[in-house]
Design brief:
By secondary structure, the protein is α+β, with helices and mostly antiparallel strands. The chain is built from seven helices and seven strands; from the N terminus they run αβααβββαβαβααβ. The protein starts with a helix and ends with a strand. This is N-acetyltransferase domain-containing protein.
Length: 198
């Protein structure tokens, strides 16, 4: 057992509801939302899925969080979101520890594939064994998992046929500021890791 494993524990948030306010603070430090929305996001944690896992130290301070949900249309697959480590404790291996703990937790429940979407943290996930994959949609009313580029193109073509007329004309004499690059702002990387059977 390493020093990191001795000093830190990963537990389901619903087993320690007293730590929910600390978890709200941690998540809002990176992605600000209303307390109501944040509590709704965290209070769904249960023994099955979705589950919020937290990384705590010996003093029981919340240092990390991730939420794991099933992907309904992909068998034996889950989706990790909102993986975060306290800003002051980053670059100490805690993110990898939390990610590994989440993978071990879901593997015990029969999960074989772990998916995630990231923007700017690709190197961290590559280092932890993830590979880029085709885009997928993990949640929402219209769950669609795009499993191949051909399927994606077919779906996009189908949607364009269903549109109700041509797009509106561009605003007259308006140019997008050079620093505002929509491609950069919306670019997200879809990644997957196949868990080895244990």
């Amino acid at each position: 057992m390493t020093a990191i494993e001795k000093e830190y524990r990963i537990i389901p948030l619903h087993k320690r509801p007293d730590l929910i306010p600390d978890c709200c603070t941690l998540l809002n430090s990176e992605w600000p939302r209303s307390e109501t929305a944040r509590l709704k996001f965290l209070n769904v944690s249960c023994d099955e899925f979705p589950i919020c896992l937290i990384l705590i130290n010996k003093e029981e301070r919340v240092l990390g969080h991730c939420k794991v949900s099933l992907i309904p249309r992909l068998r034996h697959s889950c989706f990790i979101q909102s993986l975060i480590i306290d800003y002051q404790r980053r670059s100490q291996g805690l993110g990898s520890r939390l990610l590994r703990g989440a993978e071990e937790h879901v593997a015990k429940k029969g999960i074989k594939n772990v998916y995630l979407i990231t923007k700017g943290q690709e190197l961290f996930y590559l280092k932890n064994g993830y590979k880029t994959c085709d885009p997928f949609k993990a949640s929402g009313i219209n769950d669609v998992v795009y499993s191949s580029a051909a399927f994606t193109k077919a779906k996009l073509k189908e949607k364009s046929i269903q549109s109700c007329g041509p797009p509106p004309p561009p605003m007259p004499n308006y140019q997008m500021p050079k620093f505002y690059d929509l491609g950069v702002l919306t670019q997200r990387t879809h990644m997957v890791k196949r868990l080895s059977s244990q």
